[in-house]
Amino acid sequence: MGPHPAVADVRRAVRDALADVPDNALILTACSGGADSLALAAALAFEAPRANLRAGLLTVDHQLQPGSKHRAETVISLAREMALTPAEILTVTVGKEGGPEAAAREARYAALDEAADRLQAAAVLLGHTRDDQAETVLLGLARGSGPRSLSGMAARSGRYRRPLLHLPRTTTVAACHAQGLTPWDDPHNEDTRYTRVRVRRTVLPVLEQELGPGVAEALARTAALAREDADALDEWADSAFQNCALSDIGESVSLTVTELEKLPPAVRRRVLRRAAIAAGSPSGALSATHVLSVDRLITHWRGQKAVDLPGGLSAVRRYGTLIFAISPIA
Description:
alpha/beta, Rossmann fold, five-stranded antiparallel beta sheet, 12 helices, 11 strands, tRNA_Ile_lys_synt, ligase, ATP-binding
């Protein structure tokens, strides 16, 4: 008799995600001890030897709850039982900038990046599921930040791979149960102070109730389509940026207005964002409102003054050229 269907689904997802990894490479999986990451760790432990790969595990102790160190040690014990090695606890200190969720995420990824570099890992697997993707799309929709935000999480992003994005959370829970694994239920997953928890516990259930089942699947499908569109527009914008750029040196970037005027708004605004970042504006602080203000120097030119941008930059139009530089522009 073969494995339980849920176990088979998770293993197949991991097998597909590792198909292009060279022999003997090290694959790490991030594991909190929850159902998603625990099912992923078990699947990696099963699949890696069969693909001639080495497999290890990382668990991050955010030090945000009593007993977090003990829970991290429990995860490491499970990793050893699964023959996942190396198995490490990454202890981090979470700041406050950007709110608790963003600060914890930043600290977690910084620790994972450091460990992956140190251990020379070919990839790091993350246990995000289709339900996580649906929540991410809804959060992006609420922010109103465009198709890139609606595209959710990528199945692959640099060293990170998310094999379970097409599987529902019920599959990982069933896979753990079938293998005798007891997931840890993080109390933070019930804490309604966190926006994502409110989406998970309140918003998605209401949508399912009012619109019928399949909302999470539809949102995940929307994310995949939005990602294809956003990728295509980004590629177009990359090419257009090269065509428009008169200079891209140091702290000054200049673009030809006549070339910018030929572009559709979605592409042109991407070019403007790239130019601002290339000139030194922090990407995290550069909002859609900033980009739209710069765009009006092209679409509604009335001889207006420079537009101030994050990072001490200004964008100004002069003699058919749009210039991004540190303020003041001489």
